[in-house]
Design a protein that fits this description.
Blueprint lengths: L1 H19 L16 H4 L15 H10 L5 E5 L18 E6 L15 E6 L3 H17 L6 E5 L5 E6 L4 H12 L2
Antiparallel strand pairs: 1-2, 2-3, 3-5, 4-5
Length: about 180
């Protein structure tokens, strides 16, 4: 009896295996092999790794290595931010400042009057709006002075340079920001 059950089970397994292949009269074929090694390699590119934007402090440090005369570079905190925009809605995520030759050393601490301010936003749109806002104020009220504005490659960083800085130095800063 055991032999009969074993034979029936074996026959059933063989029959079902043959039935999976479709027509039992066809012979099984070997799996297709690629014509070349190149076809066997996956051709999709790996997903791009999103680069985290630089902080304002990191941008100031990179600009200091460019030998532009930046001194006293320091990151602002919510307690030292003169604009009270750090971390606030529609404000910047990080902020740092530095002194430049031509800046007013007697100007308000951490202000662009001393030479340079870097503000980094969560989006490029917010950075552009901030730049447009400042330029609009200065156009309406020349007493507020002038500034050069340079944006980082990803658009989230706004580098503000005092209009009292010599144009030749401002051009060097522009080139350095473009190479960040």
């Amino acid at each position: 009896m055991r032999k009969t059950v074993l034979l029936v089970v074996t026959a059933a397994l063989i029959g079902s295996a043959a039935g999976c292949g479709g027509d039992s009269t066809t012979t099984p074929q070997a799996p297709a092999t690629p014509a070349t090694h190149q076809e066997a390699v996956q051709t999709t590119a790996p997903p791009a790794v999103a680069r985290k934007p630089l902080t304002a402090e990191a941008i100031v440090k990179k600009l200091q290595t460019a030998k532009l005369g930046l001194t006293h570079g320091v990151a602002q905190t919510e307690d030292t931010d003169p604009n009270n925009l750090l971390g606030r809605p529609n404000g910047y995520a990080t902020r740092a400042s530095a002194e430049l030759p031509g800046g007013d050393k007697a100007g308000e601490k951490y202000s662009v009057d001393r030479g340079l301010v870097v503000e980094v936003f969560d989006t490029a749109d917010l950075a552009q709006r901030r730049s447009d806002y400042i330029k609009g104020l200065q156009a309406e009220s020349p007493i507020l002075g002038t500034e050069w504005h340079y944006r980082t490659a990803d658009g989230t960083g706004l580098v503000r340079v005092s209009g009292n800085v010599k144009p030749s130095l401002a051009k060097k800063i522009e080139a350095a920001v473009a190479n960040l």
